Amino acid sequence: MFDQFDALLLARIQFAFTVSFHIIFPAFSIGLASYLAVLEGLHLWTKRPVYIELFDFWKTIFALAFGMGVVSGIVMSYQFGTNWSVFSDKAGPIVGPLMGYEVLSAFFLEAGFLGVMLFGRKRVGPGLHFFATLMVAFGTLMSATWILAVNSWMQTPAGFAMNAAGQFVPTDWWAVIFNPSFPYRFTHMVLAAYLTTALVVGSVGAFHLLRRTAPLRAGTMFSMAMGMISVVAPLQILAGDAHGLNTLEHQPVKVMAMEGHFESHPDGAPLILFGLPNQVEKRVDYAIEVPKLSSLILKHDLNAPLNGLDTVPDELEPPVEILFFSFRVMVALGFAMLGLGLWSLICRWKGTLYSSEWLHRLAVLMGPAGFVAVLAGWITTEVGRQPYTVYGHLLTAQSLSPIAAPAVAGSLIAFIIVYFLVFGAGTFYILRLMGRLPRDPQGHLGLGPIRSAGITPAAGMPEGAGHSHPRHGNSGGIRHGA
Q: Do residues 159 and 179 lie in contact, with contact meaning Cβ atoms separated by under 8 Å?
């Protein structure tokens, strides 16, 4: 029944499906590992129990996310041998060692210290346990380094030569790893991971502030998350702009498709805010645009010329519709995160960070935004590379295994069923854990009228002291250390 389908298209859909499931877990675990290290470091420094209580709460969630990320990543690697064996043969001399380095230096580091971090605090002492947590956090960053080095090399290949068998062989490993797009892609992805985690932590904190279940713990995590977003969101926008300029230099066709520029603009290109790309007719229908703003952003000159897709053969154009919308989703969510961070700063300055109900509702709503933005950015990166696997050198159509469409379709259906069952159940369980933040200890149950009184710092007051019962007026407060 699948004979009429194209094996290449099905293989691409399968890889896109599995990588979309996979990427959300590392994006979360990278940031969460660093957050756990910060929490434990703050506990060692301040001796405040709230930090280690939050550490214990989030470490279970991290373990689940880490496990699902490992499992989904293993499935992806098998596809290199099943669906993309030609790519594996031709790019293996470069991609293989880098993937091996990721396993040896990063995954072993994470796995080796993960057990100590999860179960060893009472066995190895606080100092060694903190070191284990740092090593897990460092391991997640190392893992991202090697994977992004592979992906960046496929986007902007460097430091290689072609041998007689048509394989990519390394001539300069430094150039392979630190290829032209790697620093920008690595910075952009790591900041995205930190933003994703901060949005999740902030969402959970806001949710429990709205429920009034554990104001001390919820307020602490909410304050830390909003502070992180306030700092990282503007940095991410700057990093994204730098990454875009690098992409314009090395992958100009991708930028043409992202911007929706079917035509060249010799006297300044407009920024198309929204429209409906029509790749058949080579135009953007119902375009809403700002004249010459794209030239200003990309070339810092209103009148700078920008080439369009009319300079590119049709067979080398990426799917414009997908790129056009995924790029705008990513950018829109980035500015929404910036807005959330600015609002939290205003509330912090006004002393209403813990009592602003509308801020908390927005934070809950923005909880999944980091995952959506990561997926949109990943789609923009990978679809924009098409029709190449190794940009400018190896076409995706040339990378496919000699495999029949029914075989790919059968495994794709199996992946869809198993992924939604297994990872759906895992995600559901993580969400249930997030909704079960233990109440504050020593009777700090969050019974006070926090919407009228607010949860505000109270200098010199014990943790949780002064939190009023509904019968006792509105003078209560809780001191937060974040």
A: yes
Please tell me the pTM assigned to this model: 0.85
pLDDT of 470 > 80? The answer is no
Q: What whole-number distance in Å separates Cα of residue 297 and Cα of residue 293?
A: 6
Least Cα distance to 13 among 412, 476, 283 occurs for 412
Checking if the pLDDT of 2 tops 60, the result is: no
**Sequential DSSP letters for 306-334:** B--GGGS-GGG---HHHHHHHHHHHHHHH
pLDDT per position as a tens digit, 276-325: 888 888 888 888 888 888 888 888 888 888 888 889 888 888 998 999 99
Cis geometry, peptide bond prior to residue 266 (ω within 30 degrees of 0) = no
For the stretch 240-258, what's the b/e string if a residue is b when 16 or more beta carbons lie within 10 angstroms of its beta carbon? beebbebbbebbebbbbbb
Could you tell me if 423 and 69 are in contact, meaning their C-beta atoms sit under 8 angstroms apart?
no
Q: How many helices (H) and strands (E) does the chain have?
A: 16, 6
How far apart, in Å, do the first and last CA atoms of the chain sit? 59
Model pLDDT for residues 144-153, shown as the tens digit of each residue: 899 899 999 9
Per-residue pLDDT tens for 200-252?
999 999 998 888 877 888 888 899 999 999 999 999 999 999 999 999 999 99
401 Ramachandran zone, left/alpha/beta (phi>0; psi -120 to 50): beta
**In the chain, where are the structural domains located?**
181-257+313-401, 449-482
pLDDT of res. 453: 35
Q: How many CB atoms lie within 10 A of CB 70?
A: 16
Please report which helix (H) or strand (E) contains residue 63, including its range: helix 49-82
